[in-house]
Amino acid sequence: MRPSIVLLRAGLLSAGAALAALHPAHADEHEAWRLFVADHSAPELRVLDAEKGETIETFSLKSPARVYATESNETVFAVQRDANTVTAFSSGIHFDDHGDHADIEVSAPKALEGSVDGERPVHFVSHYGEIALFFDGEGVARVVSEKQVQDGKPEFRELKTSAPHHGVVIPYGAHAIATVPNSKDPSELPEGVQVVDAKGEAVGDAAACPGLHGEATSGNITAIACDTGLLLVSGSRSAAPTIQHLAYTKSLPDDLKVSTLAGGKALQYFLGNFGKSNLVLIDPEDEDAFRLIELPVRAVHFVVDPVRPKFAYVFTEDGKLNRINVLSGKIDKSVELTAAYSMDGHWSDPRPRIAVTAEEIMVTDPLKSVIRAVDAETFEKARDIAVEGMPYNIVAVGGSGEQHENH
Fold first, then answer.
1. What would the pLDDT profile of 146-183 be if each residue is shown by its tens digit?
2. What is the CATH number of the domain that holds 51?
3. What is the pLDDT confidence band of residue 399, given thresholds at 50, 70 and 90?
4. Contact indicator for 321, 351 with CB cutoff of 8 Å
5. Which tens digits make up the pLDDT trace of 309-367?
6. Is the CB of residue 4 less than 8 Å from the CB of residue 267?
7. Which residues contact residue 128 at a Cβ distance below 8 angstroms, ignoring those fewer than 6 apart?
8. Predicted local distance difference test score (pLDDT) of residue 101
9. CA distances for 211 relative to 190, 225, 237, 246, 310, angstroms
């Protein structure tokens, strides 16, 4: 399988940049990364300086949360399911893209005004500059632009489905993809998706997707996992998205399915679970689209690397972090980080989660109150970062850019 390179930047020199080249302003290259870490049991969100390992700020929440970063890395959302609310935070890292380079501004992280409330918020999607928050207890998605959230004025619009269910809505500019509840029992997983317009009106026929669970975007394609394969959604901000079905190949084990997906950056591919002890690489452009990766034990968590596109990582219940080369489709390195974390027990028990910065892969170790950092180049354990409580869900936000004097 050869994942397709799709996210190349043109790098055109703007008039302003050309002028700067003739008369260069004083600028320094600067890099900043922060970790947003939610506690497993306490209603707290900590922000750490990733390089120094020091806590910058601790925010109080209404309940323990799952944390998600937007595509811009400028906003982090805390989905507090048990408190029926979602709150947002400025990462304090802002990028101003000039085509051939980006300027970076770094300030203190802060809680943003306003919240999005509703019954049982679960699914978060950031797409095309909009955020869709799906409330399972209502069967309603509340959609808001990231800019409005940053301005402290989250004026959301609602997209309603026919019944409360465990669903998702994916913004597509003037349209959206909304799940269709199971017609026999809405408490079961959805049975399909429907393209809707900005008012929530159906556009065309629904696409079947029995047992729907899991979605991710890579390049210009969004993949949605079903019992029968994947739905591949493509579109733009203005045109109605189109949907194609990609069936599982016969070479895959029977009676298994994808239920969690991650989307590649710079390389267009998807990484999904396939049962408890396998992962599957998916190249939607390849004739043999699915490639199975067998794991020695069950997977706990996996992510793609946004900085080094050819790598992804999976933490397994034997306490090891494993590096996957997505070009070869194989695990090429492993490092033991923690004691064993069995996947037996409740799905929400405290277990490690992974985040990636420019130089390190961060793995939370909630039972030891620490984050284990692995050097991205050597793939050896680099250091431990002590964190109060039980550090659990984690996202890394940041990047590099130029800092100008008096800019």
1. 999 999 888 899 999 999 999 999 999 899 999 999 99
2. 2.130.10.10
3. confident
4. no
5. 999 999 999 999 999 999 999 999 999 999 999 999 999 999 999 999 999 999 999 99
6. yes
7. 171, 172, 173, 237
8. 67
9. 6, 8, 28, 15, 30
Per-state percent for the chain, helix, strand, coil, to nearest 5: 5, 50, 45
358: Cβ contacts below 8 Å, ≥ 6 apart? 31, 33, 307, 376, 398, 399, 400
Kindly state whether residue 167 falls inside one of the protein's structural domains.
yes
Q: What is the pLDDT of residue 346?
A: 94
Mean pLDDT value of segment 246-251: 94
CA distances 120 to 39, 126, 141, 213, Å, are 19, 18, 11, 17
Alpha-carbon distances of 165 from 64, 77, 144, rounded to whole Å? 22, 22, 21
Which structural domain range is residue 73 located in? 41-253
Q: Are 65 and 40 in contact (CB under 8 A)?
A: no
Query: How many domains does the chain contain in total?
Result: 1
